Amino acid sequence: MRAVCKDASCGWLVYASNNTENNCWQIKTFMDDHTCARETKNRLANRKWLACKLVKKLRKYLNLRHSEAAQYFKTKCDLELNKSSLTRALGDARSVVYGDAAAQYGMVRDYGLTLLKSNPGSTVTVGVIPQPNPDGAFLKTRHGGQILSAIGQDANNHIYVIAYAIVPVENTENWRWFLELLHQDLGDYKKNKLCFISDMQKVCNIYRLSLKMMFTHWAADYIC
């Protein structure tokens, strides 16, 4: 088997033959010296191949721009791409990534039913918008939103999720809705000997005013 550079004047060459004794291919000749100019066009880098590469990038960088995609292929693959080809490939990749996210949101109710089946006694609420370590975090997706969560720590110092909710925005109304559901599920904090901790003054005030629950402010180390 012999491979050469497509530039006839270039001396790059690799030759391999079948080694029957070891049942493998063995390189016999290798001239690793390109004398031709570097080619930045590649017909194998078609729309499908580009889109496949871009899907991985878009999942990490949702707002990836055309210029950034072009620079990525230039730096990573040493490719100079046609602008229209890259535009079409980027569009295909966005359809895959954003379409996947939309499809997953469409399965929320199925997910809720599965959760109730596998974890009897759980509470699942879908479509209502009005911890013990409550906290909030932004969701870095095309649809945005924030996730509110309450986590606990057992006697072995293991962390586990007690409750979580995905809401459009973190505000007093959504925190109140989340904490009231949490309170309903956990029951009386005195009877169950629960201590709620948070580093957020907003959450602390909601507990104090609406749920009448004793609450330790983690950051300032005092009782609300």
From TrEMBL:
Pfam families, alphabetized: MULE
Top-level taxon of the source organism: Eukaryota
Matching InterPro entries: MULE_transposase_dom
Domain MULE transposase: 135-202
Name listed for the protein in its UniProt record: MULE transposase domain-containing protein
